[in-house]
Amino acid sequence: MARASNLFAAALGAVLLGLVAAVPSAAVAGTAESGLWWFDRGNIQAAHDAGFDGSGVKVAVIDSQINSDVVGLRGADVTVREPSYCFDASGTPYPTVSTDYVAASHATNVVSMIVGTGEAPAGGAPVKGVAPGVELLFYNAGAVLDGVVDDEGVDEECLQEDGTRMGEDGRFDLDRAISDAVADGADIISISNGSLTDVAKGVAEAYANDVVVVASMPNEDGIALWPAALNGVVAVQAFGEDGKIQNGVNGTPNVSDDVIIAAPGLDLLLQGTSDSWDAQELGSGTLFATPIVAGMLAVVKQKYPEATAGQLIQSLIHNTGAKGEHDPKWNSGTGYGAASLTGMLAVDPTKYPDANPIFDADDPNASPSQLMVDEAKAALGEGDATATPTTGPGAVEPPSEASAMVPWLIGGGIVLVLLIIGGIILAIVLARRARR
User: Fold this and answer.
1) Taking a C-beta distance cutoff of 8 angstroms, is the pair 37, 115 a contact?
2) Rounded distance, CA 378 to CA 387, Å?
3) Using CA atoms, how far apart are residues 22 and 32, in angstroms rounded to an integer?
4) pTM of the model
5) Cα angle at 88 between 84 and 93, to 5 degrees?
6) Domain assignments of the chain as residue spans, ordered by start
């Protein structure tokens, strides 16, 4: 499957980061219970009743500020990393936790889709996550603080600790957060935002450490943003109760060359409104579908702890929909189909090849490339740490045909000398025999 990128559209997407934010729902007037359709249809409770809720698995969420004290998150196993990766001009870090609805609603609801406890505010409906038993690691990175971004989608108020512009040292906050999540032992990383900032190094480290990276597609067709558009990342589409994928801002279906999997994301019950954190409303977007997929993979990982990241992704695309295990078939609307927790739990993923089926290892220009992953493995002591890269920074040109022949010429010369010496010795021996 091609994973092409429209650079002009991507540049536009970097400016309009809201494309991976929540899309206002036309069904807000519906009952709160109607926003739980995805939980019932996905047979999530049945998995929990069978003892599979993600216990023993670590899931990292990288997002904007979070309100971890909302009713549905109290008591959840959420570890918030402090400080955040963004600093103001004085060197003071922006807080990771906030009760401001505009700043924190995005991440709060993303996290709730994974570890929501099911506790409801007075008069409300319970928001229960797919994997409430996981250990969730939360990182505040890649957020837009003031709504003003530069050409790469980086918030102009988000500075490094020394006051320099984010990315001046070659790495952005989201990239660093991925690396930190990997170092903290995450099994799965869920990212519900995107831009044009380079996060390939962090993603390569994730692959080298056997970590699944799940990311939301933009909510507009034809736009490619990182990390969803990166090599080997599980890019998530959103669909509604009717099974149809969401439409973009221009009213056309949100098709993409990058999509890998689809999950519920339209008209879902959310925690909090602009009026009160104890109120509820319905919302839509790929940002909600993404943590649902991450939570499903965590539940499967609990049941099959020996499964590698590649095998989990293999199971994800081999067991979509309600038709049972099948050969993967891709389309630009839903990728390999709708993620199925029931389907994945029924099949031991260790039967599949230990390889990420959506990672192109043969394209040297892919981001990240196989070379980047190999270098990340070498840094762990799992590969040839002395290997010299043939592409990228510090690369050397591969040997030419002439230089490649040098060892053979040297070896041939040695053999020739030995033959000459042997010939002389043989001649002397034969001459002496002749005289006798």
Assistant:
1) no
2) 8
3) 17
4) 0.81
5) 25
6) 7-359, 399-436
The encoded tokens of residue 198 equal 């380079």
In the structure encoding, which two tokens stand for residue 204, read together?
A: 């390569």
Q: Which residues 6+ apart lie within 8 Å of 367 measured at CB?
A: 198, 200, 230, 231
Q: What's the N-to-C CA distance of the chain in angstroms?
A: 81
The 10s digit of each residue's pLDDT in 307-329 is 999 999 999 999 999 989 999 99
Whether the Cβ atoms of residue 343 and residue 300 lie closer than 8 Å to each other: no
Segment 103-125, tens digit of pLDDT: 999 999 999 999 999 999 988 89
CA distances from 273 to 114, 238, 241, 310 (A): 19, 22, 22, 38
Render the burial of 164-174: b for 16+ CB within 10 Å, e for the rest: eebbeeebbbb
Q: Transcribe 287-312 into DSSP letters.
A: HHHHHHHHHHHHHHHHHSTT--HHHH
Q: Which helix (H) or strand (E) holds 319?
A: none
- CATH for 7-359 is 3.40.50.200
Would you state the torsion angle of the CA atoms of residues 158, 163, 164, 165, taken in this order, to the nearest 10 degrees?
Answer: 10
Select from 195, 194, 201 the least CA-distant residue to 151: 195
DSSP code of residue 235: E
Neighbours of 111 (CB within 10 A): 29
SS3 assignment, position 61: strand
Tens of pLDDT, residue by residue over 203-231, are 999 999 999 999 999 887 767 788 999 99
Q: For 248, list phi and psi in degrees, rounded to 5.
A: -80, 180
Q: Give me the amino acid identity at 36.
A: L
The closest alpha carbon to 216, from 250, 256, 274, belongs to 256
Helix (H) or strand (E) holding 270: strand 268-271
How many angstroms separate the CA atoms of 245 and 248, rounded? 10
Grouping H, G, I as helix, E, B as strand and the rest as coil, residue 343 is: helix
